[in-house]
Write a structure and sequence with these properties.
Elements lengths: L9 E5 L6 H10 L3 E6 L7 E6 L4 E2 L9 E4 L11 H23 L7 E4 L1 E2 L10 E2 L9 H11 L2 H5 L3 E7 L1 E3 L4 H11 L4 E3 L5 E2 L1 E3 H13 L5 E5 L5 E2 H12 L5 E3 L1 H8 L1 H6 L5 E2 L2 H5 L9 H11 L1
């Protein structure tokens, strides 16, 4: 990391209490940066900027002096997609992004960068096709969510603020995401391949994810979409074998496609039975170094440090 990236900065994070945000806030504070939390509930231990995305209210002047704004807010997509939950998933991303983008654009001086979380779901189900930041969008609900999500940052972009959209893969850590759901099953020896097992999983250790988000915020050469995923995506069957090895249990079961569709509906079809083979071209070209480039390294690290 260059000397310029060691200069302490004031960084505001929305979603700092979440699965990724909590780890990122600790990481940035460990680097000497001052992290201010954006949220509805005040945290007396940290600086706080109140907002109400549903009402569209936020005192933009509270962001005065902030160099970096990071938005990780958004409702969990891991639920059955009803008409109501679809609306919540979209609104929780679009409203927060729009509110932050407009607040940043109204300031003088403005923040230098808005890092606005996104997802590889942008690409839809591409089967064996490799995708990167230059690839066109796919189809499906998640692709539409990401399109609106990223578009909501336009006011900041149009105001000359550098905007980065980290399109994250599956973030691996036992305290959340896919591992939190799968570990109890695999530790019982009841885990196994889902569907055909051929669908691609683009994944990243939580450690590498928070390092990549900090890298995106601090490296001025990066803007626009940024795939935040390991350079070695794996198929579901390979992921299953790696997780079984990590917990030293067999993984002989198979979950048929019809069961996934029955239990989870369209959410299961788009997130479990489909996948993306994403290549993090921009991260690699910018010089980012992955601590855990292989699935075995990632699982060993995240399970042993949880």
């Amino acid at each position: 990391m260059s000397q310029s990236h060691k200069v302490p900065r004031r960084i505001a994070i929305a979603g700092a209490s979440g699965f990724i945000g909590s780890a990122l806030a600790r990481h940035l504070e460990g680097l000497g940066h001052a992290v201010i939390r954006i949220g509805r509930k005040e945290d007396p231990r940290h600086g706080h900027i109140p907002w109400d995305p549903e009402a569209g209210t936020m005192d933009a002047q509270k962001l005065a002096g902030i160099r970096i704004v990071i938005n990780l807010a958004g409702e969990n997509i891991g639920q059955r997609w009803t008409k109501e939950s679809r609306a919540r998933i979209i609104d929780s991303r679009v409203k927060t992004t729009s509110l932050l983008a407009r607040a940043c654009a109204s300031l003088d001086p403005k923040p230098r960068v808005l890092v606005n979380m996104s997802a590889v779901g942008y690409y839809g189900d591409r089967e064996d096709e490799e995708v990167d930041e230059e690839s066109p969008p796919g189809t499906g609900f998640l692709a539409e969510v990401v399109r609106q999500w990223e578009g909501a940052a336009d006011p900041a972009r149009e105001a000359g603020i550098r905007v980065v959209h980290p399109r994250a893969g599956l973030v691996l850590h036992p305290s959340g995401g896919v591992l939190e759901r799968l570990l109890p099953i695999f530790r019982l020896g009841a885990g196994g391949t889902i569907g055909s097992g051929r669908q691609w999983f683009s994944w990243i250790s939580r450690t590498d994810a928070m390092h990549a988000l900090a890298w995106a915020a601090l490296h001025e050469s990066l803007s626009g979409p940024l795939i935040v995923a390991s350079p070695t995506p794996v198929r579901n069957a390979e992921f299953t074998k790696a997780l079984a090895r990590a917990v030293r249990r067999p993984a002989l079961a198979t979950v048929p496609e019809f069961m996934v569709k029955l239990l989870f509906g369209e959410m299961g079809e788009e997130t479990v039975l489909a996948g993306q083979r994403a290549r993090p071209s921009q991260l690699i070209e910018s010089g980012f170094q992955f601590d855990h480039p292989t699935i075995d390294q990632a699982l060993a690290h995240e399970l042993n440090t949880a």
